[in-house]
Write a structure and sequence with these properties.
mainly alpha
């Protein structure tokens, strides 16, 4: 990572660590959500089947929400304007914020994963470390997506409105609730461009079918490609302030 990007990431990490209320919410909210989900599925086999899709969806949702709102706050406070007035490239800024937010998104995802497996007692077939590695790729794509989408919002209310536009359609079209193959053809074509489709497919293959990371290589490559493209778009569309 370039020195400038590392400096930006370090500042983001320390700033979030100083916000104790935000840190507490980041740790507690995923646990509350997963507890409610676990209580809603009394039959173990049903929860085992839905768990991969839930892990992928929650990783995408929480990472997107955390990054989008935090990045928007940086713009509204004038931090972005000061950074862009300095000799720092747009890509360095995006990479720095990506790494800074990634640490917290990774922590949330690890908490959800361990809570799901060891507290909710979800059974899985694949290797735990491979599940975690796959989730790392998912949250990388989600963090980049949050940075990119936040550039189009001028306040937190507008950022929240992007959730039903960006996240909820993916839940319905990515095989979370029912197989993509059972959808109309035009919806199947739409699901092809959604990152959650590949996140759900990959995690299900690892957790339910004992597949390895090599077996889900296509899903990984798509998610990595998505993350790279979105990060470049975020750098191109980056704006100085919340109104700029």
């Amino acid at each position: 990572m370039p020195d400038q990007a590392f400096t930006i990431a370090n500042r983001v990490i320390h700033q979030l660590l100083r916000d104790r209320r935000t840190m507490a919410m980041m740790m507690m909210v995923p646990l509350v959500v997963m507890t409610l989900i676990g209580l809603s599925f009394p039959q173990g086999k049903m929860l085992d089947y839905i768990a991969p899709a839930l892990l992928a969806t929650l990783a995408l949702f929480f990472s997107f929400l955390l990054t989008g709102i935090s990045f928007l706050r940086e713009r509204s406070q004038g931090t972005m304007e000061r950074l862009m007035a300095s000799p720092v490239s747009r890509l360095d800024i995006v990479i720095g914020y990506l790494f800074g937010f990634f640490i917290f998104a990774l922590t949330q995802t690890l908490i959800i994963l361990l809570f799901t497996i060891y507290v909710l007692d979800v059974h899985y077939s694949g290797a735990l470390w491979q599940i975690f590695v796959f989730q790392i790729v998912v949250i990388t794509a989600a963090v980049n997506l949050g940075i990119f989408i936040s550039t189009f919002a001028r306040n937190e209310f507008q950022m929240v409105q992007f959730i039903p536009l960006i996240i909820i359609p993916q839940i319905f079209l990515s095989g979370v609730l029912w197989p993509v193959e059972q959808m109309p053809n035009y919806l199947q074509w739409l699901s092809v461009i959604l990152p959650l489709t590949y996140a759900v497919d990959g995690l299900r293959n690892i957790m339910l079918a004992s597949k390895s990371l090599l077996d889900v290589g296509f899903d990984l490559l798509v998610l990595i490609g998505f993350a790279i493209i979105i990060s470049i778009l975020a750098a191109i569309t980056l704006r100085k302030g919340a109104a700029g």
